[in-house]
Amino acid sequence: MSAGLVFLIVVLIAFAGFVVGRRRALATAGGDPRKLHSLPGYYGQTVFIFAAAPALLLLVVWMLAQPFYVENRTSGLIDTADIAAGSSRDLVMADVRRISGGIDTLVAIGGQSEADIATMDAQEVDVRKLLAGVGVALGSDVNRSVFEAAKSYRGTTDTMNLIRTVLVIIASLAGAAYAYTRINPEYRARNVSEYAIKLLLIACSSIAILTTVGIVLSLVFETYHFFQLYPAKDFFFSMTWNPQFRGGSDLGILPLLWGTLYVSFIALLFAVPIGLMAAIYTAEYASPLVRSFVKPAIEVLAGIPTIVYGLFALVTVGPLLRDYFAQPLGLGNSSSSVMTAGVVMGIMLIPFVSSLSDDVINAVPQAMRDGSSGLGATHSETVRKVILPAALPGIVGAILLAASRAIGETMIVVLGAGAAAKISANPFEAMTTITVKIVSQLTGDTEFASPETLVAFALGLSLFVVTLGLNIIALVIVRKYREQYE
Amino acid sequence: MEDMYHMDRAMTGTQDIKISARDVNVYYGEKHAIKNVSVEIADKTVTAFIGPSGCGKSTFLRCINRMNDTIDIARVTGNILIDGEDITDPRVDPVQLRAKVGMVFQKPNPFPKSIYDNVAYGPKIHGMSRNKTDLDEIVERALRRGAIWEEVKDRLHEPGTGLSGGQQQRLCIARAVATEPEVLLMDEPCSALDPIATAQVEELIDELRQNYSVVIVTHSMQQAARVSQKTAFFHLGDMVEYGETDKIFTNPEDPRTESYISGRIG
Ligand SMILES: Nc1ncnc2c1ncn2[C@@H]1O[C@H](COP(=O)(O)OP(=O)(O)OP(=O)(O)O)[C@@H](O)[C@H]1O
Ligand SMILES: [Mg+2]
């Protein structure tokens, strides 16, 4: 029986448990809910929880553990001689899994019976051809031991699945029965169900945290590999970035970091003042009617895919800046430049700054505005001296979000700033960023063994550290400000 | 002739009309919150507005410094003259008006700034001080008049929002008197105060009366009787009765005033 079906059965049992439990709670109280410690529904919920939670937990753990167990049992069946040179047991096991899936198809649509399969010998029958007939393509011929392993793999999986189904359903029924028997008017069903809800919430928040921890750990792990192949000193302090796939490359992060920070800086230079003023307009000055048009119109900018901004940078802004600024000023003649990417990215970031700032400005209580204008302050004095300071933590948050977006942005930089890693103060020169180089190091040959590919992880980790640092700085700023004002 | 004129003025000196409202109506959208209210408020007097909750006392008070402008759905008709100048005229700058007509709101609303900055806010934007010492003096004087100086003098640079509700209300009073308004509108200034602070605020009101005109909304009959010379009774948007405080409390003309004062409406 498939896991999905088992899940459904458990849910059904739990539902039935809910109904029965609720009824029993009422019955024990002689039909008077006031005699119960909790509302009847809570008693039903406890039965539901006991029926569903342990059984589903068992199901999940089983599903995670079963493949390891089955592979362990079957991989030993493969003859070492059948593992082709240049291949490995793991790769052959991938074949085993495919064949075992293929056998299922054979039985289902290929007209073979289970008995046929059991006696079938890969030495006599061309399994590869047979499987190709039902649409399962294999990379090589099937050896006898591999086929036997596949049969055993399939058999073991089937048995394990059956055991799983039985155990899970028993667990569900047992849980339901246990909770059912505990029902009596004094039983604190509400506390149990509140506690279960709390656990559920904790579980959800830990998933988010654990995922982050997992990602960071894998980055750290691969970065460690990288530093075993490439000296950390060169990575952090070398001023050149020049990867060679034949080896002997220069992998210094500084030019990329410089490009990243330079582009982001220009982007924020554009986005923050414009976005903030737009937010002040929509939140403070615009009439409700105007606001209802202007705010969504600005937010549309956030919905444009970044690749479209990239095209805009490549086709319009780049040539424009080159023809009207860079060339007349004698600052260069490349249409890809830090300025191009920065300006276009700035436009992209305006809605991030404006929309969030608008929300926080709006959240400042009307009483603050009344208090200020009641003292004879003008509207703009009120905005500058009362509203903005009160909204500052939120505005810093908005700017920070925009900064993280800018640092992580890739598409606009590829098309707007070019791919040349270089350190220069001239904003009209082509430069590139960390994210662009991560992409270019990983496209094409992706065997994670050389420093040229592993450097991507080191770059990713550095990027993470930079954004984390930004967040911490902002937190400190906000906290300092709060001490002063709240 | 000339002499007589002067004598006349001297005699009615305390009775000069400061604010004169004629046929004021206020609508919140469809809701008619103030109905045809006409009232003359004298200079150097304390005028109390009393009446059951929701009768429009705050609404009428907000007309006097045009705070109703900030509410989109509010619409005000009629005329209000302060020193003979019609403040409902669109050409009048509400910002200047509010510098002259200060307000203490029903709910305390200190800015999220330090206690000092809260009080210094008005004087700063009106350029009332020449230097820091000046400003320090203004702040201290205002806090003393707000009857809160002793409690906050050692923590002037701590946030005003960290004070207790009653302290916040007194801070707001100090903030309002710091700009030296000619008219002070106080919307239930003592609703969050203990008897001692209330007595101090009432003392302040009495002191302000020497120079200013004070309008106070209150739910406490005793307070109205203690601090005010004139009392207006509002009921469901109408101004039912207006006159000398003593008369309103001892010998009201309208049966509705009677029942409110003796505790039957409200
Ligand atoms: N901003 C507003 N929007 C719509 N209606 C309002 C608004 N402010 C007040 N009102 C209505 O106007 C009427 C008068 O309100 P107001 O606040 O002036 O009463 P009040 O006499 O000050 O009462 P209280 O003693 O409870 O403060 C009430 O019915 C109220 O519902
Ligand atoms: Mg009120």
TrEMBL record, chain A:
Q: Which cellular components does GO assign to this protein?
A: plasma membrane
| Claim: Cell inner membrane is one of the keywords in the record | yes
Q: What is its main location?
A: membrane
Pfam families cross-referenced by the UniProt entry: BPD_transp_1, DUF3708
Query: How would you describe this protein's topology in the membrane?
Result: Multi-pass membrane protein
Chain ranges passing through the membrane:
43-65, 161-180, 200-221, 256-280, 300-321, 333-353, 454-478
Give one GO term, molecular function aspect.
Answer: phosphate transmembrane transporter activity
Q: Does the keyword Hydrolase apply?
A: no
Query: Which keywords appear in this protein's UniProt record, sorted alphabetically?
Result: Cell inner membrane, Cell membrane, Membrane, Phosphate transport, Transmembrane, Transmembrane helix, Transport
Q: Which residues form the ABC transmembrane type-1 domain?
A: 257-474
Q: Which NCBIfam families match?
A: phosphate_pstC
The UniProt family comment states: Belongs to the binding-protein-dependent transport system permease family. CysTW subfamily.
Q: Any idea what this protein is called?
A: Phosphate transport system permease protein
Q: Which organism is it from?
A: Loktanella salsilacus
TrEMBL record, chain B:
Its subcellular locations are: Cell inner membrane
Q: By its UniProt entry, which SMART domains does this protein fall under?
A: AAA
The name on file for this protein is Phosphate ABC transporter ATP-binding protein, PhoT family
Domain ABC transporter stretches: 19-261
InterPro entries assigned to the protein according to its UniProt record, in alphabetical order? AAA+_ATPase, ABC_transporter-like_ATP-bd, ABC_transporter-like_CS, P-loop_NTPase, PstB-like
Please report the organism this UniProt entry assigns to the protein.
Loktanella salsilacus
Q: How does it sit in the membrane?
A: Peripheral membrane protein
Instruction: Report the domain of life of the source organism.
Output: Bacteria
